[in-house]
């Protein structure tokens, strides 16, 4: 039997999803919900706290919970816990990330003449400057790739990319431990240069290869991966992809 707080949570969530309650509307009071579900205030407050935590509602001083404005941040807050609970495999995440990065690069360069590359420029400079900073590398990597998705001008695509990076957060230490950060920076330089030169094919090629190398290194281990990198990933042997 499901917890009483879950039933209350799903009831209120459905009211918001169906539009019975819209942005700014006040939710039923705690006493009303207690009466409706024949429960104490504990389960009601637990349900309201959960809705607040994921950004669907907010509380006002003086009492009452209200429907929050529903943006992409709410979408990510709802999706991320569900995906974490289901323990999505790292390789599955990287498969989706590869498809998203390829699309992001293509759409970014569709807007090449109108793009302001300042954020991407700064991300690349930070990565070069902090090449020895292993602890900070995940955030710099994230900043680089999300700068590209931002330049697509597609908010949904950008937020899907942010969601993927939220999921990768728990893998950050494993992903960079033992790997040659200078080589990772070199890979990003190739992607960056291709984007700035508006070379779609080369930018996509380097983006896909970069992600395939991350998976390859993770599967083989840093030392074995380093030994075979030059042979396996020669930039001129396009058919190795």
Structure commentary:
With 241 residues, this protein is mainly α. The protein folds into 2 domains: 4-67, Arc Repressor Mutant, subunit A; 73-235, GntR ligand-binding domain-like (Four Helix Bundle (Hemerythrin (Met), subunit A)), CATH 1.20.120.530. The chain contains 12 helices and 2 strands. It has helices at 4-17, 30-37, 41-53, 72-85, 90-110, 118-129, 137-150, 155-168, 172-176, 181-196, 200-220, 222-232; strands at residues 57-59, 65-67. Strands 1-2 form a two-stranded antiparallel ribbon. Strand 1 (57-59) and strand 2 form a beta hairpin. The chain is elongated. Mean pLDDT is 83; it is low at 235-241.
Give a short summary of the structure.
The protein is mostly helical. Helix content is 68%, strand content 2%.
Write the SSE topology:
Layout: H1 4-17, H2 30-37, H3 41-53, E1 57-59, E2 65-67, H4 72-85, H5 90-110, H6 118-129, H7 137-150, H8 155-168, H9 172-176, H10 181-196, H11 200-220, H12 222-232
Antiparallel strand pairs: 1-2
Helix pairs in contact: 1-3, 4-8, 5-7, 5-8, 5-11, 6-7, 6-10, 7-8, 10-11, 11-12
